[in-house]
Specification:
The complex is a heterodimer of chains A (289) and B (238). Chain A has 289 residues and is an all-alpha fold. Chain A has eleven helices and two strands; from the N terminus they run H-H-H-H-E-E-H-H-H-H-H-H-H. Chain A is globular. Chain B has helices at 45-52, 75-80, 98-104, 115-124, 126-130, 141-154, 171-186, 198-203, 222-228, 230-236; strands at residues 7-16, 19-29, 34-38, 58-65, 68-69, 83-86, 159-163, 190-195, 207-212, 215-221. The chains are: A mainly alpha (289), B alpha/beta (238).
Chain lengths: 289, 238
């Protein structure tokens, strides 16, 4: 029982972590909380479901196209909606991301449909039985994807020119500009990464938890909570926050009642923010000016 | 290039919203020259540097760098052509190591980071070499200023703009910073310097521009100004 609870908690947590990473990358590079982010996740799952159900497309081409579409969506959201905005007008930015989110939801409803869909799992075959717990293959895909994407993100940020530029922009926008780094280019890459990772989360989640046009808000809130919990701006924090949130929900649902799982995790979030306002991993930078 | 000025400003005005922070500034800087801008707080010195590096949006008048107009040019493109601005308050990357800070200075340079350049930058400031693995935010103010300068040198400056490098530093540290400025002058780097400390500025420049209320009040050879004692009257109105 406990194993099973922990395993499903980690799986849900891994999804939350993937969503949280998108919030964090965009926030640290562009200083925008992208409230449309949950809709990228929804779109990933919906497009994947649509391609496999309606067009009978095999799993991997469908997943690749769904993720690609999310990358393009994210790029469009930034370029058309946010790029030319006044950087300091936060309310307008929030309104734009909210509006874009609602639009994406509406488009999914119109073009893909209102039905709840269960696209096929990535690999066929029954669950693995390990020490009294059962592990569906999709669970392994989810956790594996989180590991691979995190590693990729780490390599990008620390070992490539583009990534180092993004880090510099996230630490000090003005100084980065004076070093010849383009904040706009960093922002474009941040949004595309968020689209990629968010879209991937959507396709991974859909076979186990269904795809529905209305899922975006809830997924976005969970991912945002995970990002805040870990410390907005820290990719590692996003992962830790996501896993803790997933585990808390799963343990609450398993031992208390699934009715309380959201309440307990939100109380946990509030408690942690009272003690550590910067989040679990978020840094208070040493600064001297 | 020949005798063409490295930088020429003609009737430059800069605005923050509707507020005019720099008014009708005309100025030329020739290759190898060190020009210093002095003046009280709010005189528009920093804004002038920001106008040159194109990081403030509302700038009128003509600015030419190495003969070409910079109107509509992105700051990144200017950096790639060796116009390097060391901003007020150092603006280092506190959560990166000293070495990473230095390397990022070469971001815009074609060919990227070169080991010999990094070494040369650290040779100038041996303290930075000692602390290369340390987070830059843990450095003292003087070391941060050195880091900001080392980082700027990685960009292979053709025109180096230094904004108040002495701000908030102990006299001993200030003289160390200016020893390096002197070395750079010796190497023929063209420097545009902003200073509040007029005495330091005059001693370390060829020409001095006095600004107040966004306008140029006086320009002249630094040596003459240093001898004439004109500064106090211009700057402080005594």
């Amino acid at each position: 029982m406990l194993y099973q609870i922990i395993l499903s908690g980690l799986t849900v947590g891994a999804i939350y972590a993937l969503i949280a990473i998108g919030f964090t990358i965009v926030f640290s590079t562009v200083r925008i909380v992208n409230f449309a982010h949950g809709e990228f996740v929804m779109a990933g799952g919906m497009i994947y479901a649509y391609l496999s159900a309606v067009h009978g497309m095999p799993v991997f081409p469908a997943v690749a196209i769904a993720i690609g579409a999310c990358v393009v969506l994210a790029l469009l959201v930034y370029e058309l909606g946010l790029a030319s905005m006044d950087k300091d007008n936060h309310i307008a930015q929030v309104m734009i991301t909210l509006g874009v989110g609602i639009t994406l939801k509406g488009l999914a409803q119109i073009f893909i449909g209102k039905d709840t869909q269960f696209p096929p799992a990535f690999s066929a075959g029954g669950p693995l039985a390990v020490g009294g717990a059962t592990i569906p293959y999709q669970m392994l895909w989810i956790v594996g994807a989180l590991a691979v994407l995190m590693l990729g993100l780490y390599m990008l940020l620390h070992h490539t020119r583009v990534g180092k530029g993004m880090m510099a922009v996230s630490i000090n926008h003005y100084a980065a500009t004076l070093m010849g780094i383009s904040p706009r280019r960093s922002a474009v890459i941040a949004f595309m990464l968020a689209g990629l990772i968010g879209g991937a989360a959507g396709t991974l989640l859909a076979p186990v938890a269904s795809a529905h046009y209305d899922n975006g808000i809830f997924l976005g809130i969970k991912g945002f909570a995970a990002a805040i919990l870990g410390g907005l701006g820290s990719p590692l924090g996003a992962v830790v926050g996501g896993l803790i949130l997933g585990l808390t929900e799963s343990v609450t649902a398993g031992y208390i009642s699934s009715v309380y799982k959201d309440a307990v995790s939100l109380v946990l979030l509030l408690a942690i923010l009272l003690i550590r306002p910067q989040g679990l991993i978020g840094k208070r930078l040493p600064q001297k000016f | 290039m020949g005798h063409e000025p490295v930088l020429s400003l003609q009737k430059v005005c800069a605005y923050y919203g509707n507020l005019c922070a720099v008014r009708d500034v005309s100025l030329e800087i020739n290759p190898g020259e060190t020009v210093c801008i002095i003046g009280p707080n709010g005189a528009g010195k920093t804004t002038l540097l920001k106008s040159v590096s194109r990081v403030i949006p509302k700038v009128e008048g003509a600015i030419r760098y190495r003969g070409a107009s910079t109107a509509g040019v992105a700051p990144q493109a200017l950096v790639a052509h060796g116009l390097i601005h060391v901003p007020e308050g150092r603006q280092i990357f506190p959560s990166m190591t000293v070495e990473e800070n230095i390397e990022i200075g070469a971001f815009a340079v074609p060919g990227g980071v070169r080991k010999d350049k990094t070494d040369a930058a650290m040779d100038m400031f041996p303290k930075l070499r000692e602390r290369r693995r340390q987070l830059a935010g843990t450095l003292s103010g003087g070391e941060q200023q050195m880091l900001a300068m080392a980082r700027a040198l990685m960009g292979q400056p053709h025109l180096l703009m230094l904004d108040e490098p002495s701000m908030g530093l102990a006299p001993k540290v200030v003289s160390e910073i200016y020893r390096q400025v002197d070395l750079l002058r010796g190497r023929g780097v063209t420097i545009l310097l902003v200073e509040q400390n007029a005495r330091i500025a005059l001693r370390n420049s060829d020409r001095t521009v006095v600004m107040a209320s966004g306008e140029i009040r006086h320009q002249g050879k630094s040596a003459d100004l240093l001898a004439g004692g004109l500064i106090a009257s211009l700057v402080f109105g005594k």
